[in-house]
Amino acid sequence: MRHGKKFNHLGRKTAHRKSMLANMACSLIEHKRINTTVAKAKALQQFVEPMITKSKEDTTHNRRIVMARLRQKDAVIELFRDVAVKVGDRPGGYTRIIKLGSRAGDAADMAMIELVDYNELYNAGKATKKKSTRRSRRGGSKAAAAPAAKATEAKKEEE
Q: Which pTM value belongs to this model?
């Protein structure tokens, strides 16, 4: 029985699958986008996004965890130095999968997986601004405090 086992094995043994995903993740970090099949892109997305989250906090422990999964020192260095800085304020969703149609040889569904912050076409129209939090107007807002301050100044002048 395979109850609750939703992981896609991609038709490979465990060691082959882990090596393939590690190599694809290193290529994604190096080139910022790669073309592959839709199934591999989805598996790669699940593999690489937790590592990008770990790279946002640069500690020795996080570097060792990522190095154990990626196995390429250059990719780990680039992930912690360049990619983590670019996605520092993003709460998640670091990759995007764009479907490209079917491959000519075997009609496999192809897709492009890319790092979201590195695509100039999608980010060109958007201004880079900080997300502001919504605050209630109940207590301590400047707009409510300003008329009260003017009233106290007026009373002082009258005396």
A: 0.76
